[in-house]
Structures are given as C-alpha cells and as structure tokens.
Queue: 2 jobs
Job 1
Amino acid sequence: MRAMQLTAPGTLELRTVPIPELGPDDLLLRVGAAGICHSDSFVLGLPYPMGDRPLTLGHEIAGTIETVGTAVADRVVGERGIVYLCWSCGVCRECLGGNENVCLAAGRTAMPPCPGLGPDGGMAEYVRIPARSFVPIGDLDFAAAAPLADAALTPMHAIRGAMDQLRPGGTAVAIGIGGLGHVAVQLLKALTETTVLAVDVDPDKLALATACGADHTLLAGEGAAAAILDRTDGRGAEAVFDFVGSGAAAELAVPAGAPHRADRKGGHAG
Ligand SMILES: [Zn+2]
Ligand SMILES: [Zn+2]
C-alpha cells in the first residue's frame, strides 16, 4: 500500500509499504480521509528523527472497517468511523476518570500512543487501530469527519472542563478562529446557552465565526479586553478559551475573564 512517511528530519516521502498486520484486538481501516494538523508541520520541522523507522503521519483519520482482529470479531466489516487518537489503556485510574490523554499505562509523564506520532498513522491506504478507538460516524462525509478526531476533540475537552461556568446568561470568549476555534464556536452554541464572543486579528476569521454561530465578534488588539468587559457589564467573561497560545492571546485572556475564572483555556487534548 502507499503511505506518506516521515523518513528523516524534514523529509516526507510517498512510499510503498506492507499492509499492517493485526493483533487480536485491532481493526484494519481502509482510510477514507486523513486530516493535516499543525502538529504534522511541527513534527516535520523537528531537527531529530521521530524514531528508528520511517513513520506514517496522520492522526485525524476517517475510514471503513476492512478486517477485524480475532478478539473483536463482533465488529462490523464495512462500518464507517473516525479514530479516537488517545490509544490509552481504558482501565487505569486516569482513563476511568475520563482523562485518557494522561493514561498512566505508558508511564506517569508519558502520553499514550497516538497514531501518526508513534504508531503509524492514517496518511496511507490502510491503518491498524485498536478496536476500542473506533468511533462510528454513520453517513458523515469522511473529509468533513476526519478533523473531528482532533480539531474538534481539543476544544470539546476544554469546553467540557469549563461546563460548570457556562451557564445561561454567561459569556464565553473564543480567541483565535482557526482550526480549533471555529469548531469551538459551534460546540459552545450547541452545548451551552452562553453568549459566544469570537476574537481574532483577521476580519475574515470573524466572518467565519459569525457563520459558525458566534453572537458577537471582536477584532483583537488594543482595547479588546476593555470591549469584552464592556459587553459583560464590567464582569468579564465566564470562560475564555485561548486557541492561539501566543503571549498576546494570554494577555487578552486574563483581563477579559471574570475574577478567578480566567485560567480556563484550551489545550491540545492529545
Ligand atoms: Zn493534532
Ligand atoms: Zn489508561
């Protein structure tokens, strides 16, 4: 099969490799779509090798079950789905608490394996995945669904952590309407009754935020924090989600948040 592999620091190659072999608890997916994440360009730019073998990139994966492992023979060949990217154990203290991104199986400070960043990922014709990482998507378009595995998972994780602050009548601010932020706006509108205020340096991104359901938009820059305070009767927003991670975004997030609540931020769930 063909696979897009990182073969040396900064070098991507389309190579022909064997179709992966399955363990008893695995599924073989025929890849329908694989997203490109900022982490992929980060990995490509690393000055050192990711491991001792070529690595197939791609951790936003959608596809169809092609073959099933012997212990998961009840899974349905032909079913369509996306791949949950924390290949965690599912049984440790953190996994059982819903924090699979800090699964303890790989060690206290190690991240659980993530396809395309350790095990081979989805920029290939086929990918081997643990059966418990398969999430059915019904008839959703593969290309539209693949980024849900990461670009939607990340803001979902951040929003879930702030749900107790996101009550009706409150205000949620999303800073940065890019790959994560434009999904965050939609999630906030779907999951909460808060007023959603989108902030970006680019007017086109603010137009996207409006199309995604944002109640208000605000151009980032001097005076943005004061404008947020103004729109919240001087109270500050109940939750501020930073999807940029720059110093300027943090400097806006802190004064724009209600007291003791400005520490709610987005973060990479993987
Ligand atoms: Zn990613
Ligand atoms: Zn675990």
Note: DSSP finds eight helices and twelve strands in the chain.
Job 2
Amino acid sequence: MALAPASIRGSFSVDRYPCASFSEARPSTARLSSSLFQGIRLVFAKETMNSRSFTRADLHSRLCARCAVLESVSPTSQGDMTLVNVDLGDRSYPIYIGSALLDTPELLQRHIKGKKVLVVTNTTVAPLYLDKVIEGIKGKGGGVIVESVILPDGEKYKDMATLMKIFDKAIETRMDRKCTFVALGGGVIGDMCGFAAASFLRGVNFIQIPTTVMAQVDSSVGGKTGVNHPLGKNLIGAFYQPQCVLVDTDTLNTLPDRELASGIAEIIKYGLIRDAPFFEWQEKNMEALLARDAGAFAYAIKRSCENKAEVVSLDELEGGVRATLNLGHTFGHAIETRLGYGEWLHGEAVAAGMAMAADMCVRMGWIDKSLQSRILSLLERAKLPTAPPRHLTTEMFRSTMSLDKKVADGKLKMILLKGSLGNCLFTSDFDPKALDATLAAFCDK
Ligand SMILES: NC(=O)c1ccc[n+]([C@@H]2O[C@H](COP(=O)([O-])OP(=O)(O)OC[C@H]3O[C@@H](n4cnc5c(N)ncnc54)[C@H](O)[C@@H]3O)[C@@H](O)[C@H]2O)c1
Ligand SMILES: [Zn+2]
C-alpha cells in the first residue's frame, strides 16, 4: 500500500513497535512518538513523507534503522532529545539535539568509522570541551586512536594556510581512508574541518559537533564546507555531508552574548523566507532566547534545523530553492569582506543585509512597510544591527557584490521578500534602481 500524504494524518502502527505511531504534529512535519523512546522524539523532514510515495515496508525499514540506533542509547539526563533527519537518500543523516549530549558518548561512538579519529577545534573551544569529546570517543574501545588539532580562533584564520594545519596533522598522525574527522566548534571550525574531510584522501568520514548558535541552527547542517579567499568569503569549498550532527545545547552556556545574537540572525532568517509561524513565535519569545532559556533554544534550534533540512533535501547543490537560505547574505558578505573578516560577526552582517533587502523590497512595492517595521523591530530586540557601517561606500558594495557566488552570466541574483511574511524569491528580475536607492540610503557616498 502506498502512503499518500493524506494517509499519514491520523496514525498507524509499525509492526515491530506496536506502541509507535505516526501523527501529524504540524503540516510540515510528522512526528513519531513512542513510549519505547522515553522522551526521545523523532522528527522527519516533510520531504521524507510527502515528496515520494512510501510503502509501509519502506517506512518500516527506515524506522527500524533509526530504532536500532536509538534503542540502545540511554536517555540523556533530561531524558529528552530531538532528532531531525536530513533526507538525502543513502547520504541521509541525523541531527541530534538536546541537553548533555556530550555526556551521552554512545551517540557519537555509533558514527565513528575506522580506528582513527582527528578532532579539529580551536584555542577557545579546546579548553572547554575537547577532553570530554576525546574521552567520549575513546570510550568506544577497540583501540580507537584519537588525535586532535587546535587551530587559532577567528574568521581571519578561515583560510588555506590554516586549513593546511589540519592536513599536516592528519598526515603526521597517519590518518587513513577509514578515519573520521570531528569538527568541534563554531561555523569556522565546521566549515574548515568539513572541507578538510572532503578533500583529505579524496574524502573521509565527518562528524559535526557545533558549539555556537550559528553552527547549531545553520552551518553544521547541509554540507557546505570551505574557506575564504582574500577577495571573497567562502569562495573555495565543497559540498560534503557529515555522518551526523550532535547538538549539545548546554555548550551555549559558555557562548559570549554577541555570538549568541549573531546566531539568532539566522533563526530570524528562516522565519522570513519560509516559516511565518516561526517568525511570530520569535516575536513572542525573543527575550527568552536572549536569556538563554533552554526550552526556547531547544525549540528554535529544532525548528531551524527542520527548515534547513527541508530545503537541503529539496535542493542539495543549490540549483534553486537552497539559495533562499542566503537572504541578506549578498549585502552581508560585502560588509564582512570590506570590513575585514572578523570585524563584524557573520550574523551581524546578515542582519544588516536583511534590513537592506527589506528596504529594497519596500521600494519595489514587494512588501508592506508594516512588515519592514516588524523585521527591524525583531532585529533590534535581538540586539543586531539594522544598517551597515556608514563609511562603507556604494562602490565598495557594488564591486564586492559582483564577485558574489550568486552572480550568473554577469547578472546578480538576489533573495528578496515578496508578498506576506514567509515568502521570498531568488531572482535577477528586480529593479536595479531600487538597489541603487537602497545603497544610496545606507551609505554616505
Ligand atoms: N556552511 C554553512 O552552510 C554556513 C552557514 C552559516 C555560516 N557559515 C560560516 O560560519 C562561520 C561563522 O560561524 P560562527 O558564528 O559559529 O563563528 P565562529 O566559529 O568564529 O565562533 C564564534 C566564536 O565563538 C567561539 N566559541 C565557539 N563555541 C563556543 C562555546 N561553546 N563557548 C564559548 N565560545 C565558543 C569561537 O571560538 C569563536 O571565537 C562563518 O565563517 C560563516 O561563513 C557557514
Ligand atoms: Zn549565514
């Protein structure tokens, strides 16, 4: 029997686990709940259910594969973990989200392949979490050898010279084809370690342990990896999917306030491009996020990962819809590049970029002023900038934006908002005069 989307509504039993049942939690996700999992919830991306025709046997085998992993995992101390599946056929992988997951090493151990592991981290994160991760992996037994490389901290080190330190360590310690690279840190470490894993010996296993909001809601999901070039951000890289992503929300407790806010910019982005109810939830819960309320963060991370997983499942290599995840990034990358990497945080530049994109859309009559006000107000409440530094000139924006990866056949394509909250377009079909006017409004000259 083929399960059409409609038949997923309601619930049905899964033969081997009679107490497991599907029920539609929201239009966009289906949730498997089961007393077997003692609070562990499985959330499958919408596409798993809707975009293909699934037989009961298909679902059964998928569930059994997941159950086999989860059954032997002891519950975390909070007894609550969410799992978001990134559905990419045979390269699908789980994102585990929860408190104290670094204290649940079985999760990590299950995805370690081979006998050699290289943990890549930086000078800030290493003293906080490296020992715990190494101990956790070693606990797998069987003579697994864990090496680590500690890189200097900062976006300015997201370059080829620093990348080479990962390869140096991997070669010195004789990492082989079956080894696993583990990224422990924020987006910079994740992007660099992922690119190293994609290219070392033409590709080795890769696990992400993201420790910033930015990395937990965005950069660790979807397989984009790479380094910067002095002339442009992320210009050198590869698509490379991890085996799993392990999000321990407790790691956010050590994150500086400014970094926390930077990651919230990407959370706001998901609401704007495709999830109006999530944006409205943020309007009600922004102060809870800033206060690091664990429940609010768990929800925001889960909803962000679901949104990203859905988009990536539809368009892994960014042929179309995936580009919408770059709302505000064309302006934002220009800000980051012109100020010098690291001067403004990525999310800060994206926040100003989203404000500039909204300004352009109002000028073209694509969105109402009232929506623009809501966007600016939420960004301000998140303590994020809503304009670039004034000393950046229109010429600086233009020349940097012309190097943007979204330039095709000499034409700049942008992600722009159109219509009601939650709708956007990826298009080159916009009024260039609106772009001129926006740049003129935000730059002194
Ligand atoms: N691959 C993607 O799809 C994607 C998406 C978004 C952003 N990115 C990239 O991610 C990078 C930005 O990531 P980021 O904002 O995480 O920056 P980051 O990696 O520089 O981390 C921010 C700072 O927080 C520190 N830190 C990390 N975890 C910590 C913790 N738990 N406690 C205390 N300090 C901690 C880091 O050492 C660093 O100083 C950019 O390079 C951006 O291009 C990539
Ligand atoms: Zn981003």
Note: Residues 218, 266, 329, 346, 350 surround zinc ion (ligand 2) (CB under 6 Å).
